[in-house]
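The protein record reproduced below.
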Amino acid sequence: MIVLGIDPGTATTGYGVVKADHVGAMSLIECGVIRTKPRDPLPARLQNIYEGITELIRTHHPDAMSVEDVFYAQNVRTTIVLGHARGVILLSAQQAGVAIFEYPPAVIKKAVVGTGSATKLQVQFMIMRLLRLRSAPQPSDAADGVAAALTYAMTARAPQFSAEASVFGVTR
């Protein structure tokens, strides 16, 4: 099973592609970020994100996409703009027929670290341990994308996490 994990953002969208086999062994295929230009208008930035996600799907043919759910920022505008980015990410997966799973940030932290209040450093440390990496994925947005992918890979069969995920799309 190949899982594409996404940490949405309009400036930087983190992603991680993880392969999990039937016995639970997991490996990192690729991770990184899709960066947009801060001075570009929002529609151009959204197009950049959409095209980047579409290319990742075309390259890796994931069985599932795991996306960090929206968090509620203090600034309403930030939350709304993040929603736009998530919209084009979800659209890209839906058009490709990839099953989409959304997890709140605390659920991702709980799945990877064991507690929903884990720090970014704790998440990065556990990613290194779980995937047997020499160093944590950089930047932290990429690590968050990997954590989202790991959440689905590790919890797809666990009912307590499945109940906490919002599920869209159809399985291939």
Notes: DSSP finds six helices and six strands in the chain. The chain has a mean pLDDT of 89. The longest strand covers residues 26-35. The two ends are 11 Å apart (CA to CA).
